[in-house]
Give the backbone structure.
Amino acid sequence: MINMVIDGRQVQAQTGWTVLETARQNGIHIPTLCHHEAVEPSGACRLCVVEIGDETWSKIVISCMYPVAEGLNVKTDSPRVKNVRRWILEMLLAQCPASPEIRALAAEYGVQTTRFVNHDPNEQCILCGLCVRVCKEVVGVSAISTIGRGVHKKIGSPYGVVSDACVACGSCVTVCPTGAMSARLDAIRGVHAGREAGKGGK
Amino acid sequence: MSRVGVFLCECGRRIAPQVDLKQLGELLSQNPLVAHVQVEPFSCLSPGLGALKAAVEEHKLDRIVVAGCEARVILKKFEQALEPVGLDQGQIDVINLRGHVAAVNDLGPEQAAVKASKLIGASVAGLDALTPTAKEKVEMQGPVMILGGGIATYAAAQELLRRGIATIIAMYTDEYQDELRMIHEHYPGERHYYDRLEAMMQEVEESPLVKRISVGELVGLTGRTGNYSVSFKMGDEIPRIIQAGAIIACLDGQMLNQGNNFGHDGRNVICHTEAEEMIWTLGVPTGKVVFWLNDYESGQEDFAYLSARSAWSMARYMREHEPRCQVTIMYNQKLSIPLSAGERKLGRELGINWVAYDSELRPTVQAGFLNYLSPEDHTEYEMPWDKLILSPRRSVGLETNRVAKVLGIKHKEGEFLEVKHSKVRPEMVGRDETFLAGSARYPCDLHEALRQGRRAGTRTAEMVAKAEAGELYAPRMVCVVDPSRCVGCGLCNEICDCGGIEPPAKLGPSVIRHVDPMVCTGGGTCAAACPYHALTIQNNTTAQREARAAALARSLAPGEFMGWGCGWGGLAAADNAGIKGLKSDPRMHLLRVSCIGQLDPSVMARAFLEGAPGVLLLGCPPEDCHHSYGVDHTWSRVTLIRKLLSVCGLDRRRIAMAHVDLNNPQQYIQAVNSFAELMAKLGPIPDDPETKAKLQGMYDTVNNDRVRWVLGASLRRPWEEVYPGDQRHALAYDQDMVAVVREEYTKARLVSTLKAQPQPIGIGELAALLKEDEARLVPNLREMVSEGVISRVHKDGVAHYIMR
């Protein structure tokens, strides 16, 4: 048993748990986007940041991947944590202004507008890669991936054509935290997902 | 006696506030089938999984239900985490409490808890009816056999020998040199590849691991993965039978010349294979050689790029070896020339002329000239030729077709062999249906054929290695045949699209079928179609689904109804509606099924029998079934239930089929809401003994083998092009079906009535009991007497009947 403190509460954890898991087990809410219980965490969205340390020294870590340790002091809602989340949400708002989920979350933290440049006002995807991980880890086909680099990065099937590997299970749509995958699915699975897409031919 | 545990997830803010979990726990502990109930903040995270494991061991649970979120996404995690404590696939069920109850219905926490308890109760009953089977280990009882005689044989054999796996190659020729001499007949214009090919052939021939046998034509294949018997005809002798653990089929397609079309005469107007032959026997011709890539004009435009490659390769050889030869390649402007930049440059240096023609005008072959329309200036020109070389026609070929039939490779007539049957998750099927390589699969060049061979070799080698390590297991949810019930009718084989039903062990009638568990995808529409219930999906049986339907139907309150959602369509759409928080009618109670085709009509009838006022089936959109036409088959089954509802005097609309796309959750909401409206209009089914007896008659009728046989006849076969409703003689069939259903329903009612009578009973009394016309009963009674089902005795000269 590991003894630690989250938001002033004494909690117990076991080796191998993450800070996020321990917080959730004790009913403490930490917002997440790229985290899904069905896949391994990847720490892409950074929204689950928490502050660890004491009055003299502290640092910001992502709770979804930070392992628990004896005597750890975690603050999930400190001013510093809130400030970091506001920055993240402001950047996300610039990345995908069209996502109602992101807008609602930003509003929760008092972020209404963004000072960063937006490239596409219709973008919904935060590029967290959750869909890619589900496709690989849960479904086991790896039909989708991130394509391109930097600002050109996006989610799709190889060469942007209908994927032969896609089994059209829709797991990516189900786990997508912003609803962005729904618009992309048809280009990946093809029209008649069940049969036609997999039919012979080059 | 099973011990079922139920775990309720709070899921942060997403389930606990909307559903009163404490009350739900209390409701569930009243259920005699539930051994243990526990609430967890997050069952799926490390702390929760740890708690689940501890509870399974402490309370000796042998199956569990997790009431949390989407089974489609999270179930695998539970299966992996709980395998060490003895829970296997099929012993864990996940109910989407979050998506199907908390998020979509404005019920209030208490009402939501009641609804959840019904869904969980159904799942518990289903698990209770499970008889878990052991994992089936697959062993290789023989070497790998590569047959079919295609050139990819050598690539596959090379891959296998390099991995140290014993292989038999069954060839039609005695020496590989013979094949090398013939290869241009299947892959013209590939001479540049022959050195490498010969090296590969030599390596295979010299390897002690590879045994070459010269065989006659393939006549039979029986058995399953790990244990095949392959028989070859050997002249007039008895067929030679060889045992093999795995099969790779290497089949090359056929190349035909253009016959009498396009001026083909076999002398000056020839095709690629003939040109190749000419170069090697007579040498490169001098003068003007024109390749006309006429694939567009001969209706094979998909293969024009292959003809272009082979023409380029021959043209290059000609120019390099005979400077007096002028080469032009004429191509349809729609074709993009499949050459690399380097090849284009080389082509220019060699003076190979590529000339495009306008696709609007079909070029005309004339003596010494080819007339064509230039796309540049819209003027017709004449291209002079001394030799005109046409593209070949590509087809599977008669012999290859025959071999494919023996191997059980189902494909549409006139099409190539590559058919991808099912779009399912990799873990649902043990291996590819057939390891197939070569141009009969789909026209390709030599390089691609060999690549396919290597790939088939690699995958087979991986499978063999796994089997040798004792780690090759068949998927758990696959079809199995009960040999005591199977009559060998072959209906399952006919409608199975995944190829999982094994080739029968011998020819003739009444040969019991078997399933190759490594190929079966567990779709299960074959099992639902079996007239005798001989085919079942192990760990996921019709009995389990019936138990679920019955438990849910019994628990429904007035006004409530139930439905089934397919994991690829309806259920997925319901999950996504939950994610989006779209509200739907709370009276709907949705059950999960992995393919809607798994639903035996007996499951639907059972739901009505146990008190469901309506059943809504939510499948995939038409033509989108991931298994073997499960949606189409469900359509046929729903129409059967409709007929029976009519016969029972109930409204036919009480069962409905909806097609829902997972990416369009609104469709799910619409389907549910309009069915809810209809249900409100129709009201409940009367709960009296008479209606119960009718519904029992309906249940007995759908389990009647004759009705199931007639139903089986209408199920869409893999080679049929259209969704049901457009079949031949659809109306005549349907009328016959109605007659059969009426007859068997009446007989079923007679049997159950007579069973309840200790004394022989007269026809007048029978008619009164059944509220049927005497005239309708008479022929049925007569038939049942002659079939020996019932006995007729005479009392005072009047016929009386009793069960035999």
